[in-house]
Amino acid sequence: MNDLSEFEEMYLKRMFEFHDKKPGSILKTTQLASSMGVSPASATEMVQRLASRDLVTHIPYRGCRLTPSGFQISARIKRREGLLEILLSDVIGYSGDVSEAACKMEHNMNSELEAALDRMLGYPENTPSGNKIPVIERSVDFDLSGLLLPIKSVPDGVESIVEVIALGSTDVKTLQSLGISIGSVILKSESETFCDGNRVEISDLISRKILVRVGGD
Asked: Disulfide engineering: 55 pairs with which of 31, 50, 63, 200, CB 3.0-4.6 Å?
């Protein structure tokens, strides 16, 4: 995707979003233009450009739809957006416009960084807003040894060590009162979580903001 401009990627992403809602349907050029905030003539020009690269099928006077290649690329763009939304919202607690920030960042992410972020987040299925994260051409590595993951993403029965607590001072003190701090050993078992052998209760949101090293010493 390195040879695609940011604007071209945005068009593909919009087409993917339309396809996700209405699989197999033809997207009218006027609809595409409206969603992109451009004139129908500009949208038609872009569709023709993408069609010349076999990413879109242009149907004159009717509209367009993604080709298999276009669908794969647009799905990856959408997945990157979803992963970044989780990172910004659930891990680092970004207080600004998460969707806008993720949209800007997704165009500067290469395949290696995408795969690393996907692994770190534990291959999530949904974004914070509940939208599904595309799995097309997703590279999944089931060897979690040495990975830094949110507690929520660590499988049951796998021991890990707390390395990062991405929370404010008040929440950190609350965790410390439970015995959870940097270096604590975490073990999940079914619906329970143990810290240094003691059962603890932490919310789903908090468990996303405590990063642990799987299989670390």
From this structure: 50
Class of domain 6-70: mainly alpha
The DSSP code sequence of 121-175 is TT--SB-TTSPBPP-TT-------TT-EEEGGGSPTT-EEEEEEE-S-HHHHHHH
pTM metric for this prediction: 0.74
Amino acid at 119: R
DSSP string, 3-51: TS-HHHHHHHHHHHHHHHHSTTPPBPHHHHHHHHTS-HHHHHHHHHHHH
Residue showing tokens 């903001």: 209
Query: How far, in Å, are 10, 78, 109 from residue 104 at the CA level?
Result: 10, 12, 10
Report pLDDT digits (tens) over 2-23. Answer: 589 999 999 999 999 999 899 8
Encoded tokens for 170:
């008040």
Which residue type is seen at 28?
K
